[in-house]
Design goal:
- With 102 residues, the protein is an alpha/beta fold.
- 40% of the residues lie in helices and 16% in strands.
- The chain is built from five helices and five strands; from the N terminus they run βαβαβαβαβα.
- The protein has helices at residues 6-14, 27-32, 42-46, 69-80, 92-100; strands at residues 2-4, 21-23, 38-39, 61-64, 86-89.
- A five-stranded parallel beta sheet has the order 1-5-4-2-3.
């Protein structure tokens, strides 16, 4: 697992890079505010119900949550399940909102 800052992620989004963003928060959190990631709850990863994202095993996968803790767990679990290029957004959506949402 690697880390990516909100600044690095925003620059990549602004450059229109095609990214595999995974939001591991609950649906209500995702509905309140998100940065375009696919909502795929941590609980699904914990249950090893990854068939919907299994095609990303060899691609870069960037996980985020509110603070970076759940997404760090998601990255570690995904690596255990054979994902080879996971990134955790340091500080999560909280850091994103603090820096970019006025």
């Amino acid at each position: 697992m690697q880390s990516i800052t909100v600044d690095e992620l925003k620059a990549r989004i602004d450059a229109n890079e095609i990214l595999n963003l995974i939001d591991v928060r609950e649906e209500t959190e995702h509905g309140d505010f998100n940065i375009g990631g696919t909502n795929f709850k941590l609980r699904r990863i914990q249950d090893m119900a990854i068939e919907d994202i299994e095609h990303l095993k060899t691609e870069e996968v960037i996980c985020y949550c509110k603070s970076g803790q759940r997404s760090m767990m998601a990255c570690l679990m995904l690596e255990h399940l054979g994902f080879t290029n996971t990134h955790n957004v340091t500080g999560g959506i909280g850091a994103w909102q603090e820096k970019f949402v006025k």
